[in-house]
């Protein structure tokens, strides 16, 4: 089971690397003034999203495997785990919204400023911190 946990952590880190960087590309894209730069950012956004999406699925699959292996009935009464699952669900929603934004940028249909994307870029940090605390400290 330690191998599953190690792989889960590896894919979490990989997923977060992409979830941190993709919105930063959106910031640059929203600031870009020339078409060549926008075209290059479209390629980068598309490739990054396609690369990190399997990382998300592997994170989820391995997390579910650990839940099943550690007996869900024993863990299901732990509030910290429920809170973590809610936060991970929010991160999955965020991930798919990033995919929506990749499509919007690809169609030259961005409707937001670079400032909005700078704030949007902070959402994963606001999810990561409580997830780590919940996982390690298990406060409730």
Automatic annotation (TrEMBL):
Functional pathway: Porphyrin-containing compound metabolism; protoporphyrin-IX biosynthesis; protoporphyrin-IX from protoporphyrinogen-IX: step 1/1
Pfam families: UPF0093
Positions that bind heme: 8, 84
Transmembrane domains' residue ranges: 6-27, 48-68, 80-98, 119-137
Catalysed reaction, written as an equation: protoporphyrinogen IX + 3 A = protoporphyrin IX + 3 AH2
Entry annotated with the keyword Transmembrane: yes
Cofactor(s) the protein needs: heme b
InterPro entries recorded: HemJ-like
Keywords recorded for this protein, A-Z: Cell membrane, Heme, Iron, Membrane, Metal-binding, Oxidoreductase, Transmembrane, Transmembrane helix
The protein's Enzyme Commission number: 1.3.99.-
GO CC, alphabetical: plasma membrane
Cell membrane in keyword set: yes
Leading EC class: oxidoreductase
Biological process terms in GO annotation: protoporphyrinogen IX biosynthetic process
Gene Ontology MF terms in the entry: metal ion binding; protoporphyrinogen oxidase activity
Subunit structure: Homodimer.
Known function: Catalyzes the oxidation of protoporphyrinogen IX to protoporphyrin IX.
Name the UniProt record assigns to this protein: Protoporphyrinogen IX oxidase
Lineage, uppermost ranks: Bacteria, Pseudomonadati, Pseudomonadota, Gammaproteobacteria, Chromatiales
Gene: hemJ
């Amino acid at each position: 089971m330690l191998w599953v946990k190690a792989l889960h952590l590896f894919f979490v880190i990989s997923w977060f690397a992409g979830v941190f960087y993709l919105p930063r590309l959106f910031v640059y894209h929203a600031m870009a003034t020339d078409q060549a730069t926008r075209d290059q950012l479209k390629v980068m956004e598309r490739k990054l999203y396609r690369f990190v999406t399997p990382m998300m699925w592997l994170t989820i699959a391995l997390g579910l495997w650990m839940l099943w292996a550690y007996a869900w009935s024993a863990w299901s009464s732990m509030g910290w785990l429920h809170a973590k699952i809610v936060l991970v669900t929010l991160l999955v929603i965020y991930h798919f919204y990033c995919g929506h934004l990749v499509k919007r940028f690809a169609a030259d249909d961005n409707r937001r400023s670079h400032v909005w994307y700078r704030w949007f870029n902070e959402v994963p940090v606001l999810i990561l911190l409580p997830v780590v605390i919940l996982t390690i400290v298990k406060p409730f």
